Amino acid sequence: MAFEVAYNKFIAHIPNHPSRPLFNACQVFNPKYIYAGDLLRKNIRQYSVIKEFTNPSDDLLQEWGIYCGLENEFLGEIELDQYWLNKMTQLPILSNIALDYIWLPISSCSVERSFSMYNSLLDNDRQNLSKDSLKRLSMMYFNGRRI
Questions:
Q1: Which of 83, 67, 22, 23 is CA-nearest to residue 48?
Q2: CA-wise closest residue to 14 among 103, 116, 102, 115
Q3: What are phi and psi of 105, to 5 degrees?
Q4: How many domains, the chain?
Q5: Which of the residues 57, 61, 78, 103 has an alpha carbon 20 to 30 A from that of 8?
Q6: Domain match, 129 and 77 both
Q7: Which 8-state DSSP code applies to residue 79?
Q8: pTM check: above 0.90
């Protein structure tokens, strides 16, 4: 029964989540994702949901080509932030973009925390905020605190 409840919550929220395409596109900043897949993964236009990739500059395209050509590089168990910090001199534009996007809460407890926070704010029908919940949400937003 617990599995069914979790599965129903997953089906209700994850497949239609408005940020899902962005979360999927962020995989591009993991070099193992780029090198392990097919040639289509190296097409920067495929990741246009990342705003910096929508209309990339010539310099960014040049760095992208270098990034996609680093296939012989050793990719052991390095942390992504360390990988991109190490690439800062070779790929400065792409490194700055990557360092912003790899910290999005894609698969961490902060996503679960946000679901819990929203569950306490939304009414039972999950469609309308009550006056009290709207007030709490505004206070949380402007004060940067959790309720």
A1: 22
A2: 115
A3: -75, 75
A4: 2
A5: 103
A6: no
A7: -
A8: no
Is residue 84 within 8 Å of residue 95, measured between CB atoms?
yes
Residues 42 and 67 in one domain: yes
56 and 122 part of one domain: no
Among residues 84, 86, 98, which one has the least CA distance to residue 44? 98
pLDDT digits (tens, 9 = 90+) for 25-70: 888 998 888 888 788 889 999 999 999 999 999 999 999 999 988 7
The phi and psi torsions of 122 (rounded to 5 degrees) equal: -80, 150
In whole angstroms, give the CA distance from residue 140 to residue 85.
Answer: 33
Q: Which domain holds residue 13?
A: 2-102
pLDDT in tens, 92-123: 999 999 998 888 765 445 555 555 555 554 54
Residue type, 23: F
Q: Residue 50 in contact with residue 56, Cβ under 8 Å?
A: no
Which amino acid does the sequence have at 133?
S
Instruction: For residue 79, tell me if it sits in a domain.
Output: yes
